[in-house]
From TrEMBL:
PANTHER family given in the database record: GLYCERATE KINASE
Signal peptide segment: none
All copies of domain MOFRL, residue ranges: 311-420
Record keywords, A-Z: Kinase, Transferase
A single GO molecular function term of this UniProt record: glycerate kinase activity
GO CC, one annotated term: cytoplasm
This protein's record includes keyword Hydrolase: no
Species this protein is from: Bradyrhizobium canariense
Ranges where the MOFRL-associated domain occurs: 8-235
Protein name per the record: Glycerate kinase
Length: 427
């Protein structure tokens, strides 16, 4: 039987390449201003975006080095060498002290922007955890606890960010308010959110926020989050309302998406078609519980197999896991694990599920897996080792399962983030 793993990996790599800062950022950068370019970046691709901005302004445009300053806050292990823009490696998905200091320095540098300066804000997914600036009355530890509770709740990322915005001095438009004296605030973003909502990418630090404190309180109640009394008081305080449309902070602010999940999914769909597969594109905005989505996709694959079709089923979006066990994993690994249990008698079906940022759940290390692959070899190892996928699902322990079968997807930091890429090949 033909090994489909090289093709599966090529499809994943095509999705990542379509959103890499080194190739997509420069055409969107503005001309040099009279004063300085103040570059403030956050997220898993922040350092790569900062390095690309440096190449454009310093090398292509010949900007004097002293006129380019900035801070790029990224996930641990996602830093790259830079010349003028300081890189801060910080915690993700749970914030840490480095992110706290990076956010404080970012707000201070934004406040220094003058009427001749361009405030250039570069965002990728992960910025919500990287830029941590608790509102008054909330300790860093209390903010960390809220993040942990949200991550375990099963809430979709959009709802998580509603709560985060209302407990922050940088999210929900507040960075634009800090830099309101700049000649222009230009935000260039790589979307990691379903439907590409600007207010959701890195929790919208430079755009108006349509959500409210009341929305945040409702999410806390809906998921029965165990939060500190100080956090409850903060969510009741009108002073913590986010910036709304019409705020003076946005008078000279511009926002542009430079990469979307759909572009990356389209790149993978094109490659699958060129490889001879009929393609089923389920869209770039899928949400839902990982194991439930896997069951839906398994049914599609089995139906195509029964009809004798050679099909590639592709999808993007961001799935969630409601944590009930104490194992290790993430949504992509859990999706693949659920598929393994449902497709174990079908050696002619293979699949990959991976996060385009290179990390799926995990402990916040650069060596965390991005997801997993399954095929006939997986099914054979399951049988030989008597591995029962359902038992691992019950404990949310997909990483241990795929360590045993040798099927973890381990690309390392990709320096971008356009959500997940999932592929099922039916031969």
């Amino acid at each position: 039987m033909t090994d489909r793993r090289p093709l599966l990996r090529a499809l994943y790599d095509a999705a990542v390449a379509a959103a890499h800062p080194s190739t997509i950022l420069a055409p969107h950068l503005r001309p040099a201003p009279k004063g300085r370019v103040i570059c403030l970046a956050a997220g898993k691709g922040a350092a790569a975006m900062a390095a690309a901005a440096e190449r454009h302004y310093l090398d292509t445009l010949g900007l004097a080095p002293e006129r380019l300053v900035g801070i790029a806050t990224t996930r641990h292990g996602y830093g790259v060498p830079t010349r003028r823009i300081r890189v801060v490696e910080a915690g993700h998905p749970v914030p840490d002290e480095a992110g706290l200091k990076g956010a404080a320095d970012t707000l201070a540098l934004a406040a220094e922007a003058g009427p001749d300066d361009l405030l250039l804000v570069l965002l990728t997914g992960g910025g919500s955890a990287n830029w941590i600036a608790p509102v008054n009355g909330i300790s860093f530890g209390q903010k960390q606890a809220v993040n942990k509770a949200l991550l375990r709740s099963g809430a979709p990322i959009g709802e998580m960010n509603v709560v985060r915005k209302h407990l922050s001095r940088i999210k929900g438009g507040r960075l634009a308010r800090a830099g309101k004296n700049a000649a222009e605030i230009v935000t260039l973003a790589i979307s990691d959110v379903p439907h590409d909502d600007p207010s959701a990418i890195a929790s919208g630090p430079t755009v108006p926020d349509p959500t409210t404190l009341n929305d945040a309180r409702a999410i806390v109640a809906r998921y029965k989050l165990d939060i500190d009394d100080a956090v409850r008081r903060a969510l009741d305080d009108p002073a913590n309302e986010s910036c709304k449309p019409g705020d003076a902070a946005f008078a000279r602010a511009h926002f542009e998406l430079i990469a979307r999940p759909k572009q990356s999914l389209d790149a993978a769909v094109k490659l699958a078609h060129e490889a001879g597969y009929e393609t089923i594109d389920l869209g770039a905005d899928l949400e839902g519980e990982a194991r439930d989505v896997a069951a839906d996709h398994a049914r599609l694959a089995l139906q195509a197999r029964a009809q004798g079709k050679r099909v590639a089923i592709l999808s993007g979006g961001e799935l969630t896991v409601t944590v009930r066990g104490n194992g290790r994993g993430g949504p992509n690994q859990e999706y693949a694990l659920a598929l393994a249990g449902l497709l174990k008698d079908t050696p002619d079906i293979s699949a990959l599920a991976g996060d385009t940022d290179g990390a799926d759940g995990g402990a916040g290390n650069p060596t965390d897996p991005a997801g997993a692959l399954i095929d006939a070899a997986t099914f054979a190892k399951m049988a030989a080792q008597r591995l029962e996928p359902q038992a691992y699902l019950d404990n949310n322990d997909a990483t241990t399962f795929f360590e045993a079968t040798g099927d973890l997807l381990l690309p390392g930091p990709t320096l971008t983030n356009v959500n997940d890429i999932r592929v099922i090949l039916v031969d």
